[in-house]
Amino acid sequence: MQNSKSTLAVFFIVVASFFENGILLAQTQKITNQGINFISGDFNTILTKAKTVKKPVFVEVYLNGCPHCEALAPVLTEKSVGDFFNANFISWKTEANSKESAAFQKSKGVTYPEFPIMFFFDFNGDLIHLVTPAERKTRAEFIEEVLAAGRAALDPMQRTGSYATRFKSGDRDLMFLINYGKYCKTIKDQIALTEINDTLGKLLTSPQDITSQAGFYILQRLINDVDNPLSAYFFTHLNEFKSKYPAKDVKEAGEAILFHSLYGPKGDVYPSARIVNMRKDMVKIGVTETEASARLLLKELDAYLREKNTKAAVRRFNEYRKQASSLGLSDYAYLMKYFNEKATDNSYLSELPIWANEGIRLAKSTEANTKVMASLYYELAEAYWKMDKKPEAIKSAGKGLETAKTAKDDLTRFQEQVGRMK
Predict the structure, then answer these.
(1) Which residue of 63, 72, 188, 192 shows the fewest CB atoms closer than 10 Å?
(2) How far apart, in whole angstroms, are the C-alpha atoms of residue 220 and residue 114?
(3) CA nearest to 112, candidates 63, 69, 71
(4) Which domains are assigned to the chain?
């Protein structure tokens, strides 16, 4: 950790504005139109022009209402910035929630880790560099921040495309690891991001470093594994973070770690006990018990059924039924199908008629003859058939078929079920 102290101190200064709501103050200089010449159109239009002139492409993605984007905007109108970017790039900008942005993300397979974000592509459309510029104390420093990003994009040795090689060669500078992590997050390289996070977990070990603004920034933006040492410290020392940072930021950081853990590479292998603890951690950061229970219900059920513990899965769902107030017909129809398909034994079967009756009772009048109701009867018939209750199974199958006809659903599976049970 000694080798990263100076870098940590520098990063502390760079990101200070993000944690103090410090928007770069507007300068008294007159804003001119001598800055970057952003071309109108969509990304493909810009790429076509770039191929014609054999220039790389610069893309700024901003978010309406983002104070950091608003701070960057006047810097991009500076003459020195315009002179450099107009000479070296074809430039385009897009608002994060626009249709053009959605199309851009889909075509390039990228996500936005934070705002603003600066992408650089070669004229063939391959990503060569990206930067999430940090606000600086002075306009001159902020200008240099933006120019440095452009210069790096033109230098193959500094581009983010070279980061994997630098990491493998042993580069462990803290700022480099953070930038490499944001790059991997942007291009959705979860395997490399996890490796970087493991390295960060070994690099930042003291409470002072972990709770520093750099450490908290890493927790907020990069950590994707609840078992990472930084995560472990975070969830066991929440009061330390709450005393230094806004409760909203602490809550969102914890939610992001838990979300990425549950839906990342390890999401389908966590044991049930670990997921239960994750639900408790969610409550600790400020999520209500009811909401936490709803968010993790299916993950808990999946874990129990992977462990061939159907009784525990049934018990968990019944606990949730008593707690939740928002369950409806579609929820019961889905869970009945879920258990019919995934349960490893028949211990759940006696519960399905109870769940079906509850779903029917909670159904709105407009749901009486819908595809969802037909599906509920279908799953109920399957349960009765497995319980060797043939009359009840045939009756439910008939109701499912008739409801499906009324709902103008595809009748194939309903007809096959009725035929199988006759």
Answers:
(1) 188
(2) 11
(3) 63
(4) 2-201 (3.40.30.10), 268-326 (no CATH), 345-422 (1.25.40)
